[in-house]
Amino acid sequence: MVKVISDSTCDLSQDLLEKYNVAILPLHILLGEEEYLDRVNITPDEIFVWADAHKTTPKTSAPSLDAAVELLKPYVEAGDEVVCFSISDEMSASGNVMRLAAGELEAEDRVRVINSQNLSTGIGLLVLEAASMAMEGKSAAQIEERILELRPLVRASFVVDTLVYLHRGGRCSGLAAMAGGALKLHPRIAVEAGKMHPGKKYRGSINKVVMAYVTDMEEELKQAKKERVFITHSGCDPELVDEVRSYLCSLGHFGEILETRAGGVISSHCGPGTLGVLFIAKS
Prior knowledge:
Elements: E1 2-7, H1 14-19, E2 22-25, E3 28-31, E4 34-37, H2 44-54, E5 59-61, H3 65-77, E6 81-86, H4 94-104, E7 111-115, H5 121-135, H6 140-150, E8 154-155, E9 157-159, H7 164-169, E10 186-192, E11 195-202, H8 206-216, H9 218-222, E12 228-233, H10 238-250, E13 256-261, H11 264-270, E14 275-280
Helix pairs in contact: 2-11, 3-4, 5-6, 8-10
């Protein structure tokens, strides 16, 4: 049997985690001197209130080694193979913590840690592919091989309502050059080779911007793998999310259109009003 584990930045809903039998290893979120566990005892809305009150971006950190060992141990002791997913190694030491935990348990031969080279449901897309294969009885080696083939095909991007959070946190390369007057813009941020990069810059209301961003991807969306597409956001107007969903439905392409709310770590760095459409391109 293969158990699939992801760190909390995969942003999969609780329903999806249960449906696909995926376990979560939480990252840490620090609000000043107070430390919280992502998805466990802090909400994105609470994070936004704190960040705006203190005019700073919360700090986030990798899971603890003890927590990783505790999560892995029952599966290792049961003789299961484990496939773990982490946020891009360029963004966090989460994957390294998982590798160290496997070493602590002397289970490097049965625990495979995959650097997603991505974030949010860019990771989630790979996690669900892996979990589906595990349910089909595939081995950890077979799963890892397939995931590494799919990894460069993940298309993860989003537009932000405000650049303030990314600017404060310095999380996006090239963002400093877009500061000042550019803070009134809504850039498309894409994940490439494990790093976030600003792309096309949109002007106007966030509702107008989001629909322009989505429709700009129409040809890519029509060429995507058909199984699923994610709408992932950090607390957008439900009517806007419905408009995006209706547009994706109108393409008649995807088997599933899944909506998820970004968790605390992703929300800490992107801020409220962020929305992305994420999918896997056909190979």
